[in-house]
Sequence to fold (721 residues):
Amino acid sequence: MDISVLLSLVKIILVIAYLFGLFWVMGVKVRPLTIKGKKVNISLLVNLLGTIAAFGIIQLTLTDFGGFQILNDFDSGLLYQACTMTMVALGLNLIYGFNGQFSLGQWGFYGIGAYAAADVTYRWLNSDASGLVVLGVGVILAGVIIWAIGKFTSNLRRMPVLSSFTLYLLGSLVAGYVAILAGRWISPLINPFLGTNLAPGPLAQGIWLQVVFFLAVIFAGIFAAEVSFLFGLPVLSLGSDYFGIATLGFTIVIYTLMVNSDTILPFPEMRGGRGMIGIPKLTNWFWAFLFMILVIIIMRNIMRSSHGRSIVSVREDETAARSMGIDVAGTKLMSFVIGSLFAGLAGGVYAHYIGFLSPGAFDFLIGFNPMIIVVFGGLGSMTGTVTASFGWIFFLEGLLRDALGKISPQAPSWRYVLYPLTLLLLMLIRPEGLLGKLEWGFLKLPVIPLRKVKNEGEQA
Amino acid sequence: MNATAEKTPVLQIEGLTKYFGGLRAVNDFNLTLHEGDLAGLIGPNGAGKTTIFNQITGIYLPTKGTINFYGTNLVGFEPHEITRTGIGRTFQNIRLFSDLTVLDNLRIAFHAQCGYGLFDGVMSTPKFQKRENEIVENAQELLEIMKLTRVQNEIAKNLPYGEQRRVEIARALACGPRLLLLDEPAAGMNPREISQLMELIHFIRDKFKLTVLLIEHQMRLVMGICEHITVIDFGEIIARGTAREIQNNPKVIEAYLGKGA
Fold:
């Protein structure tokens, strides 16, 4: 066996071990320190420092020390891909694994996030601030309007879903219109500071560019979440299978819009089916790690709150959940929106890693990848999803491509034969997925100790 | 019956009718419950008892009629809204969240009263932590009352049948109900468990100041604890009264007890 193939294998094992170590250090409980007679709880500090250390380890291996670099550009690319895949798959696990709604729309929201964020930074670097202004004003205003309509309609009983959908849609369209006006008014004020593509101005470089990138990703995520809200509102009232078909349709619609983005949509810079080029490659390990950890923490905190439990109860038994006072439709919508938010964020990070967006990358067939990862890692296991995402990328794009590439240049295509077989094998051996519903470290839900009862012996 | 007149009416059902297509499942059903009542609803299989429960709890929309709960007409409310106004229920075929622990089953029922938003949960605010502790505290108290402390962290589907029934009652109580609807709580229980259940129903009614309406086939339980009983057959009321009156009613004997008599 070739040494590089062996190395790829070692990398998979190391990266999985790294993840487990990361979750361990993020959740480890340390005994309180006694400083000057006072007990100080330092667990949180240890967790934070540990997470930073975990970030630093990878950062060190990625740094080039004058020719000595442990992980090369190819490996760092795998890492960023794995981080974005983790975010997409975690969102899908929330929708499918925890809430039980079979959704194929995740890839569409990923695409929306990618294109939205890419357009913002692309325009920013080509002396046009309207991308950021329109998207920012639009998503914030739409969020406020949707919230206000929700407040307003909450005391109207049995309002038909399509009526409230119409209200929300009109509200969002108003927000969009105002945003476009705002873009027309505000962006000329910023444009002079942006310089041109060849000679970037003060706001188009350094720290400001990083801030714009961060905002672009966040706004792209919120944009995807708002689209998913409008889409999910009428569609989530369908039964599970029909919902799956509808979300598949959504992914195809998004794909079609991407292919025709320069003809039927007013975005010539997206260049339709030829693919969008010239997106600044701003994603580095810091951003990829930050967004991934953010998504993991948000997801884990939701799952251990009462809202997370209500999400799971809808998967377990809708009728019983209804009778326990849980707003089933609202809960489904909530998990769908949060899941899409994660996908949108992931899209933004991905676009700035790859630097080139082609509609082909958002085809619905590739959209099955997160679904496969979620099932592979275990429906309803966050640890499983994260591990499977990293394992998947490093196995498929790292090891298999490398190993098959040694045989012949055409052989890497065989990995689309090998991985379905791996999946089949796993489903036969372990149908509940690699980890089932198990969690590890930070992601583990606390087990509440039993309460002391006086007459325990009396129990039947 | 007049003795109860000064009490507040909890539930007033008038002219409740339900059609499933051409099938008339319930016809012109009337019932009034007063505070603290322990009432029974009996009838042969397919008489429409569970359909009545499902209409009270909003799972089915009545074709006609009104359901007044403390003066509010519940017709048109969503099931979760009805639960939040104070009606808890159990199911004929146990519907626990079977892959979750007993404690989680109860904690889910506390969701409507959780009192913090999604944001508090994500940020793990002090309010979130305080309310979570209170929820656990309350849930554990209920488990203790239902003698389920021991199985707190067991997966619900692994419990024996009788305990699953008790978890379901505990879960209904966790919703903070003023009216408790029990759908065949004694199904599949042995005589000893039924005696315990009778005690338990009495106990929780007094402890939580509940009004209880139950559907049951076990005559021993119905006759033993229900203060008044309504008998229905083919969706129509055929008799109502105390246990003794019911037992001697020829219509009831014909429709229901008649098989053995």
Remarks:
- Chain A touches chain B through 37 residues (CB under 8 Å).
- The longest strand of chain A covers residues 33-35.
- The radius of gyration of chain A is 24 Å.
